[in-house]
Design brief:
InterPro entries: RlaP. By secondary structure, this protein is of the alpha+beta class. The protein has two domains: about 120 residues, Beta Polymerase, domain 2; about 90 residues, no CATH class. The chain contains eleven helices and five strands, in the order H-E-H-E-E-E-H-H-E-H-H-H-H-H-H-H. A five-stranded mixed beta sheet has the order 3-4-2-1-5. Helix 7 runs antiparallel to helix 8 and helix 8 runs antiparallel to helix 9. The longest helix has 24 residues. The two termini are about 30 Å apart.
Length: about 230
């Protein structure tokens, strides 16, 4: 383990399992995808050379972001960050991590529609290019595109982000295996996109996230780190 690994470990406030195990899509061959948040002391940002905004490892499939980056991405409705904040599979949660989890509603807004649709369009474009190039897309990516649109639609309609795919599990795994005809997958995607867009005007989510609340919390985290170090 490197010095940076130990430094990030020492300041990790939240680590969860995401991916297939959190989505209810795990099989015997599934990896364990770990994502987390670390909060560096304010003094780490004072020199000209700034600390990294994210860190990979040392465990396989492990990625952590610095807390300020998490705040920025979360306010933009980044799906990966929102899933970290909502994962039920929590491995590490310090008091600061608990505060961040409690702050989760402040990140949620109708920006979900724009962010999720842009991601879905990009992934679908890659799938179509894969078909044109080799006759087949990366089916795993297609599965997660459908899963993401389903979760986004539920979030917009209910205000709740649910990671587990529930009754869609078998059909999604059929997509991953390439067992569903492409036309059927496209039709499924189109229905989900229509449902996501149509929920925009009636969603319980606010039009914008509570940026002020998130920023106040982040500033308090930095101030407390100075008080501790002092």
């Amino acid at each position: 383990m490197s010095l940076t690994d130990r430094y990030v470990d020492a300041h990790t406030i939240l680590q969860v399992v995401v991916g297939s195990r959190a989505f209810g899509l795990a099989t015997a061959a599934s990896d364990t995808d770990r994502r987390g948040v670390y909060a560096l002391p304010a003094a780490a940002f004072w020199p000209l050379t700034k600390p990294p905004q994210h860190h990979e490892g040392p465990l396989p499939e492990q990625l952590r972001w610095e807390v300020e980056r998490v705040c920025v991405l979360g306010l933009a409705a980044n799906p990966n960050v929102l899933e970290v904040l909502h994962s039920p599979l929590v491995e590490t949660c310090t008091p600061l991590g608990g505060e961040l989890r409690e702050l989760t509603p402040a990140f949620l807004s109708r920006r979900v529609v724009d962010t999720y649709l842009r991601y879905a369009q990009a992934q679908f474009g890659k799938a179509e290019r894969g078909i044109a190039r080799s006759g087949s897309p990366v089916w795993r990516h297609v599965m997660h595109l459908i899963r993401l649109l389903t979760a986004g639609g539920h979030l917009m309609r209910t205000g709740e982000l649910v990671l587990d795919v529930g009754a869609d599990r078998d059909r999604l795994l059929a997509v991953k295996a390439g067992d569903l005809p492409w036309a059927e997958v496209v039709a499924w995607r189109d229905r989900l996109v229509d449902r996501l867009v149509s929920s925009l005007d009636h969603s319980p989510l606010p039009a914008e996230p509570d940026t002020d609340r998130v920023e106040r919390w982040l500033v308090s985290v930095r101030r407390r780190s100075v008080a501790v170090s002092g």
